[in-house]
């Protein structure tokens, strides 16, 4: 059992935290100001502990009276640097500013975060902290507190930027799901991405500077991280640019022949571009980890194990990308060699659009079965399946080489990678002890696979936990369990919630289960009810159906999205009401028929 | 990726709005996320689900139409091919690669020439003629086979619930 009294220990919220930090800092400043009022404060005193090394040597002017403001400030600063308590307060304050800055950026650029984004952010954050902890204490093996502090500040800046760039990527993907994103949110997001990119340039300078003093290894450790950040950010920026270009094109020239041609040409370009970025990022990460493993003699330690697992994962990832790429190349060659482009007359005869993208075709490839598709559309389909989309004719019958060159596991690859089991190498379930402690795990798995599934708003771990709960309580829908798990972060707590009745199924499931708690809702539906014929159908009035704009509803597709939403909503309501009316009238008719029969 | 999927979804939405098939309405609930739709399906006439209007949620993948959407009824359902949480189990929604039940030929599976309209029409015919060999809901399949009148009574109740008529 978890420790009960700690269970609901609240995490201090941001307001309280920043208030406390400010108070602590002002107390320290006051303390320092008191000290420097005394003359002779700057002579070596009992304050002069190990922290003095940084600043004490720099100055020894002591003028108790007639100090300028600048001097006053620098004196206060000197005192504070020397006093360990003050140093910690200042570090705390810096962190507080950092968090506030992050909050401000979030408010300014992202607004409210969606649930999946929060989830992702939290997971990323704890994984980052875990790995950097391993790095600092397991690999670099720092001995002095100053060094720890330097690394900490470096990593907090880096982690901050990493998280922001991750968040921007998620948000960009979400925005690309909508046809009506306001112009400003694009601008804001782009500006943020550009700022992250610029800051990574600054970080690069810092790493060179530090490397100058700290040696080549330190430089490389820092450099890889910066490079990764820069590459990932650049990747998002360029993808975003492509996307914006697409949108603009679409609004000016709605699917003309010009556009589809550029699309056709850009297919391979954007493919290679994605592949290039992904591979570069993976390889840099791989080198980084190899460097860590080889440089520090940490063989036979916990840290080396973690690094090795990570290496294994990265290696598999690269291998998978490579295989997929080979498959792509092969399919493309096969396409070009075996299926000719359709001729002009064939295109004219076939007046249909491309069956895959539903857009106009003015250049198309012809399959042996006579069906025409855009080159890129066909290519992306054949990568995952080898049959004609329209008639399902298997294409490798004519070309036996397909089977020999294409191992079966490759054909199923796109499905496989989203469904690969997630093996947890290490799992820390913090919420068992205190509710706000994180549960995190070192996943030796594909982080991006989770992201592909971003609409589901769950991650593998949560999903696995939810399924665990659902096996115990099959009558509670998975979504409800996941919602609760987001709060509790532990299977045990959610199970307890269910048992104590704090977690209940949503109404549509609940009213079925009222008389049968085991969740077999068929039984409750079976329970005998009054026969429909005995019901007084006249009491239902059916006049409420509004008929004013039913005629206009069906045949219009508005240009404005809000109007479309409204029309759709109205149509739905109208349909339900019509169905209700029809149903009641039918029952009424049936009831009167029965009555007539009885009377006669 | 998402760009072409978005264009295709928009085209399908337009088509479904301008020429709606009988008894079917579908479209994005909120256009901020065009990849999540709600569909209303009227129970086919002459079957036990006649008259009901069943709401369902459709979630599209980012690489639609290369991968099929997922469909889940948001009202309570009792049907051999619908899981108790509302997920629909029909072959047209399964990607060509996977075969959870191990019986479908790939010709019945998802292909990019399928569309929302075709999915919904197949769901309508699934409501009319359950396939009791693929048991997504074993209880329902058994009842459908052995106690048809009880099955009909349950269906009747579900129909009334979807119309907001007290049972």
From TrEMBL, chain A:
Domain RING-type: 354-392
GO molecular function list: ubiquitin binding; ubiquitin protein ligase activity; zinc ion binding
Pfam families reported for this sequence: CUE, G2BR, TPR_SYVN1_N, zf-RING_2
Biological process per Gene Ontology, one example term: protein K48-linked ubiquitination
Transmembrane segments: 16-36, 87-105, 125-142, 189-213, 219-242, 294-315
SUPFAM superfamilies tied to this protein: RING/U-box
GO CC terms: cytosol; endoplasmic reticulum; membrane; ubiquitin ligase complex
InterPro entries the record matches: AMFR_Ube2g2-bd (IPR040675), CUE (IPR003892), TPR_SYVN1_N (IPR057992), Znf_RING (IPR001841), Znf_RING/FYVE/PHD (IPR013083)
Domain CUE: 461-503
Keyword terms, alphabetized: Membrane, Metal-binding, Transferase, Transmembrane, Transmembrane helix, Zinc, Zinc-finger
Subcellular localization, as worded in the UniProt entry: Membrane
Pathway assigned to this chain's UniProt record: Protein modification; protein ubiquitination
SMART domains, per the entry: CUE, RING
CDD domains, sorted: CUE_AMFR (cd14421), RING-H2_AMFR (cd16455)
Predominant localisation class: membrane
Membrane topology: Multi-pass membrane protein
Xref: PANTHER family: E3 UBIQUITIN-PROTEIN LIGASE AMFR, E3 UBIQUITIN-PROTEIN LIGASE RNF8
Protein name: E3 ubiquitin-protein ligase AMFR
Automatic annotation (TrEMBL), chain B:
UniProt-annotated catalytic positions: 89
Pfam families in the record: UQ_con
Coiled coil: none
Keyword vocabulary terms for this entry: ATP-binding, Nucleotide-binding, Transferase, Ubl conjugation pathway
BP-aspect Gene Ontology terms: ERAD pathway
CDD domains in the cross-refs: UBCc_UBE2G2
InterPro entries given in the database record: Ub_conjugating_enzyme, UBC, UBQ-conjugating_AS, UBQ-conjugating_enzyme/RWD
Top-level lineage group: Eukaryota
Reaction catalysis annotation: S-ubiquitinyl-[E1 ubiquitin-activating enzyme]-L-cysteine + [E2 ubiquitin-conjugating enzyme]-L-cysteine = [E1 ubiquitin-activating enzyme]-L-cysteine + S-ubiquitinyl-[E2 ubiquitin-conjugating enzyme]-L-cysteine
Top-rank EC class of the record's enzyme: transferase
GO molecular function, one term: ubiquitin conjugating enzyme activity
Protein EC: 2.3.2.23
Sequence ranges assigned to domain UBC core in this UniProt record: 4-164
Subunit structure: Interacts with AUP1 (via C-terminus); the interaction recruits UBE2G2 to lipid droplets. Interacts with ubiquitin ligases AMFR/gp78 and RNF139/TRC8; recruitment to lipid droplets by AUP1 facilitates interaction of UBE2G2 with AMFR and RNF139, leading to sterol-induced ubiquitination of 3-hydroxy-3-methylglutaryl coenzyme A reductase and its subsequent proteasomal degradation.
Function field: Accepts ubiquitin from the E1 complex and catalyzes its covalent attachment to other proteins. In vitro catalyzes 'Lys-48'-linked polyubiquitination. Involved in endoplasmic reticulum-associated degradation (ERAD). Required for sterol-induced ubiquitination of 3-hydroxy-3-methylglutaryl coenzyme A reductase and its subsequent proteasomal degradation.
Family statement drawn from the similarity comment of this UniProt entry: Belongs to the ubiquitin-conjugating enzyme family.
Name of this chain's protein: Ubiquitin-conjugating enzyme E2 G2
């Amino acid at each position: 059992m978890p420790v009960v009294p700690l269970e609901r220990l609240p995490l201090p919220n941001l307001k309280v935290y920043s208030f406390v930090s400010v108070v602590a800092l002002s107390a320290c400043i006051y303390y320092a100001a008191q000290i420097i009022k005394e003359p002779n404060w700057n002579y070596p005193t009992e304050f002069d502990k190990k922290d003095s090394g940084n600043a004490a040597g720099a100055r020894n002017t002591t003028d108790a009276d007639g100090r300028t403001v600048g001097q006053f400030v620098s004196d206060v600063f000197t005192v504070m640097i020397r006093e360990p308590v003050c140093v910690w307060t200042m570090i705390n304050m810096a962190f507080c500013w950092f968090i506030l800055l992050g909050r401000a950026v979030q408010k300014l650029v992202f607004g409210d975060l969606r649930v999946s984004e929060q989830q992702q952010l939290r997971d990323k954050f704890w994984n980052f902290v875990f790995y950097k902890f391993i790095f600092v204490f397991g690999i670099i093996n720092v001995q002095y507190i100053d060094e720890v502090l330097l690394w900490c500040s470096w990593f907090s800046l880096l982690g901050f930027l990493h998280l922001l760039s991750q968040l921007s990527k998620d948000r960009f993907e979400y925005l690309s799901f909508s046809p009506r994103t306001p112009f400003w949110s694009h601008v804001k997001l782009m500006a943020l991405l550009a700022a992250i990119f610029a800051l990574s340039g600054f970080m690069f300078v810092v790493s060179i500077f530090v490397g100058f003093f700290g040696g080549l290894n330190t430089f490389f450790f820092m450099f890889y991280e910066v490079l990764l950040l820069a590459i990932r950010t650049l990747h998002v920026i360029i993808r975003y640019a492509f996307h914006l270009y697409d949108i603009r094109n679409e609004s000016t020239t709605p699917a003309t022949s010009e556009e589809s041609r550029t699309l056709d040409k850009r297919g391979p370009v954007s493919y290679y571009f994605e592949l290039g970025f992904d591979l570069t990022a993976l390889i840099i990460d791989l080198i980084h980890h190899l460097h860590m493993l080889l440089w520090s003699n940490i063989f036979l330690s916990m840290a080396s194990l973690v690094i090795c697992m990570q290496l294994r994962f990265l290696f598999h990832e690269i291998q998978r990308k490579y295989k997929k790429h080979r498959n792509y190349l092969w399919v493309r060659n096969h396409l070009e060699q075996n299926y000719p482009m359709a001729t002009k007359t064939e295109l004219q005869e076939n007046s249909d659009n491309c069956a895959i993208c539903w857009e106009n075709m003015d250049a198309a490839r012809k399959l042996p079965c006579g069906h025409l598709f855009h080159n890129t559309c066909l290519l992306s389909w054949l990568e995952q399946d080898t049959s004609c989309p329209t008639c399902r004719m298997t294409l490798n019958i004519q070309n036996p080489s397909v089977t020999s060159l294409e191992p079966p596991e490759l054909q199923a690859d796109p499905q496989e990678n989203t469904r690969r089991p997630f093996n947890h190498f290490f799992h820390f379930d913090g919420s068992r002890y205190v509710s706000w402690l994180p549960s995190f795990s070192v996943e030796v798995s594909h982080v991006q696979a989770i992201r592909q599934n971003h609409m589901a708003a769950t991650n593998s771990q949560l999903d696995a936990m939810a399924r665990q709960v659902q096996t115990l309580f099959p009558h509670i829908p998975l979504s409800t369990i996941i919602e609760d798990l987001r709060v509790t972060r532990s299977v045990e707590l959610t199970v307890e919630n269910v048992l104590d009745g704090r977690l209940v199924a949503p109404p549509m499931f609940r009213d079925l289960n009222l008389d049968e708690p085991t969740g077999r809702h068929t039984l409750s539906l079976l329970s005998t009810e009054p026969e429909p014929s005995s019901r007084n159908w006249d009491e239902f009035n059916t006049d409420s159906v509004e008929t004013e704009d039913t005629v206009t509803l069906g045949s219009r597709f508005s240009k404005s999205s809000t109007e479309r939403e409204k029309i759709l909503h109205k149509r739905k309501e109208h349909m339900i009401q019509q169905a209700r009316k029809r149903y009641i009238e039918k029952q009424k008719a049936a009831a009167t028929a029965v009555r007539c029969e009885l009377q006669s | 990726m998402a760009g072409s999927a978005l264009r295709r979804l928009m085209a399908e939405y337009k088509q479904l709005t301008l020429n709606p098939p009988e008894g079917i309405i579908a479209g994005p609930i909120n256009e901020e996320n065009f990849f999540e739709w709600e569909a209303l399906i009227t129970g086919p006439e002459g079957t036990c689900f006649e008259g009901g209007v069943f709401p369902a949620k459709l979630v599209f993948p980012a690489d639609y139409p290369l991968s099929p959407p997922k469909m889940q009824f948001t009202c309570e359902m009792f049907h051999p091919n619908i899981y108790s949480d509302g997920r629909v189990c029909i072959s047209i929604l399964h990607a060509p690669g996977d075969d959870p039940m191990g019986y479908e030929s790939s010709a019945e599976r998802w292909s990019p020439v399928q569309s929302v309209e075709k999915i919904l029409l197949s769901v309508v015919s699934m409501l009319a003629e359950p396939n009791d060999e693929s048991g997504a809901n074993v209880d329902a399949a058994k009842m459908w086979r052995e106690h048809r009148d009880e099955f009909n009574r349950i269906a009747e109740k579900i129909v009334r619930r979807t119309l907001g008529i007290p049972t």
